[in-house]
Amino acid sequence: MSIRMDKTPLITNDAVVFGLLMLILAAVFVTSTSEKTGWQKFYKYIPSVLLCYFIPSIFNTLGIISGDESQLYFVASRYLLPTALVLLTISIDLKGIASLGKKAVIMFLTGTVGIVIGGPLAILITSAFAPEVVGGVGPDAVWRGMATIAGSWIGGGANQAAMFETFGASEDLFTTMITVDVIVANIWMAFLLYGAGISSQLDKRLKADASAIDKVKHQIEEYQLSIMKIPKLPEVMTVLAIGFGATGLAHFGADLIAPFIAEKAPGLEKFSLTSGFFWLVVIATTIGLLLSFTKARKLEGVGASRLGSVMIYILVATIGMKMDITAIFDNPGFFLVGLIWMSIHVVLLLLIAKIIRAPYFFVAVGSQANVGGAASAPIVAGAFHPSLAPVGVLLAVLGYALGTYAAYLCGILMQFAAG
Q: Is 261 a residue whose pLDDT tops 60?
């Protein structure tokens, strides 16, 4: 995706960009744990994880760095993310996660429904006061471009590409819609991360029972304390070897499985089963879950999840540097439609959460598993507790499976709405 195509960034060397991102992350975490009253008041209202995402976006907007020119996001999403998933799932308590109950799945499906009905409703609402915004004919019909957003917001990149091919949007419209997709989704992600910092207050407003989540977090923390020790160099090397070794194995498997399915059963593309990234995430998560039943689980005592969290925050920073805040003014009409669409998704989530008294954690993860997919759902889940990250991954994988069918239905409904 390209936002700043007209300017060359001030810093083009990825080594320098990475150094800058690490300085930003360090500054955020040092100040967020400061005992100075000013910083404590500041972080009472602004979650640290939000700044890890937002500050790099400012640097990108100002043209100092560029997420489009850099390869750091690719490295973080293809190498650090799967490694982080392995390290975060090594000590996972599957029984504990199962005890979270059916509300997690209900909120995820609610998020999917919100996107399916939100698209056509956004077109109908916008057409009431600005019909030219959602007009267009042939390949330039706006609903065709919006169908590609539906694929992204329910499944992921593979589903988005499938909708592009299915509904035949023009390449110019598709490029514009990618920008709308990224900006609106990242704005919503920023709100989710902010909400993670005040989740207890939000749970009170939702009259939600977060005891199951709190119980899982306490179990994780107690287990970590029971095996915690100062790590020695061989132990740190072992943690990294398992993490990156599993990532290498996941890449090896994905490189074999995805092309094989694409050749032998191309029809399975609609389930994203021909996507190498899909298999990368699935294999890495599976390896981590299998290791949680072995002695490798004790590697949590020497900081496995802590190292995994570092990698997740690097991913957060690289996602932030792909966002150009000023792009929202380039096509304000399209962004307005996207914001209305996302608002319907959010309102439905909050309404159902209120009815079934689901904690904000399920609202946030259920939404991001749809809108953000496997790359960012664990970020949002991990903002509540690092070891809850796999919940986001598991739901995101479900999104991959539903993505094309639900997005196709959304596209058809938007075609009728556009009339």
A: yes
Q: What is the pTM of this model?
A: 0.70
Quick one: which of 330, 337, 328 has its CA closest to 133? Answer: 337
pLDDT band at 30 (very low <50, low <70, confident <90, very high): very high
Dist. CA 271–CA 154, nearest whole Å:
12
Q: What is the mean pLDDT of residues 200-219?
A: 83
Residue 28 tokens, joined? 């955020």
Cα 53 from Cα 70, distance rounded (Å)? 16
Q: Are 362 and 42 in contact (CB under 8 A)?
A: no
Dmax over CA atoms of the chain, in Å, equals 66
CB atoms within 10 A of CB 247: 23
- What would the pLDDT profile of 101-113 be if each residue is shown by its tens digit? 788 889 999 999 9
| Structure-token pair, residue 294 | 């072995």
271/286 Cα distance (integer angstroms): 19
